[in-house]
Write a structure and sequence with these properties.
9 helices; about 230 residues; 2 domains; alpha+beta; binds flavin-adenine dinucleotide; five-stranded antiparallel β-sheet; about 15% strand; Gyrase A, domain 2; 5 strands
């Protein structure tokens, strides 16, 4: 049996502080985490006044917790991500109230000239799309630099496809709720791309919890509306 430490250290090296590219300009990056499979098992076993009982028994316990909706032990895992995504994705993301957000403010910062461009647009349409965004940014920048308009007012002309950045701190249970809702085919494809990237990262950090979650919750869900992870 591979120890928790062995699995996690190997996984951590692969995913910590590495930007995982999403869409044309975005990324997710795990900047900090606490807990992991071991913490979930430890907390859950408090109910039975017991300690870890080895691989098979611990995996069975995790599956039992996930299938029965005994979610609080997963709150022992906490992750902080640095995220860069289009505003319209952030708006959907921020609906997930069980987590903490700190976002770059366009009252205080000038927006970066970066915007979402959908994949697969015909060349002419892509050029028009870019032209529109570039012209809007030019006007925005002029309003601030030439006309001394306040940043907080000038931002109102920016499109919702511009990129924003925020830190998201979330516990394992709330993260699973996010992944369940946002990897679903019902969710918009752009936020699904972020949810899949996050699922890949946390599956490396807490491989037991998230592999069981994928197998029995995502793929075993009643709606069957989840993509293969
Ligand atoms: C495909 C899709 C389409 C959507 N379309 C729309 C839309 O058209 N319009 C729109 O407004 N929203 C829409 N949403 C957002 C959706 O309604 C939820 O706000 C969002 O998914 C967050 O889910 P959540 O409440 O489970 O997560 P969180 O806010 O993180 O909450 C986690 C859990 O905590 C509990 N909880 C949190 N707050 C409360 C509370 N106040 N009272 C009781 N329990 C609480 C609930 O059990 C909840 O599941 C959509 C979401 C999806 C996935």
């Amino acid at each position: 049996m591979e120890s928790f430490d062995g699995e996690m250290n190997g996984g951590l090296r692969e995913v910590m502080h590495k930007e995982k590219k999403v869409l044309n300009r975005g990324f997710v990056e795990l900047v900090e985490w606490m807990g992991g499979d071991e913490a979930v098992i430890r907390n859950a076993r408090r109910c039975w006044r017991s300690a870890s009982k080895g691989t098979e028994s611990d995996r069975k316990l995790l599956k039992h917790l996930l299938l029965k909706g005994h979610k609080t032990p997963f709150e022992a895992m906490v992750f902080t991500f640095d995220i860069k995504c289009p505003l319209f994705v952030a708006r959907q993301w921020f609906r997930h109230r069980m987590g903490s957000f700190n976002e770059e403010s366009l009252r205080y910062c000038v927006a970066e000239r970066e915007y979402f461009v959908p994949e697969g647009l015909p060349a002419k349409l892509r050029d028009e799309w870019r032209e529109h965004q570039e012209e809007t940014f030019t006007l925005y920048e002029q309003m601030i630099s030439r006309h001394s308009l306040r940043r907080e007012a000038a931002r109102a002309i920016l499109p919702i496809g511009i990129y924003t950045r925020f830190y998201w701190t979330v516990n394992g249970s709330s993260l699973m709720n996010f992944l369940l809702l946002r990897t679903s085919r019902q969710a918009q494809r752009e936020i699904r791309a972020y949810a899949r990237a996050i699922l890949e990262i946390v599956s490396t950090v807490a491989p037991w919890s998230f592999s069981i979650f994928q197998e029995f919750v995502l793929k075993g869900g009643e709606s069957g509306s989840h993509e293969e992870a």
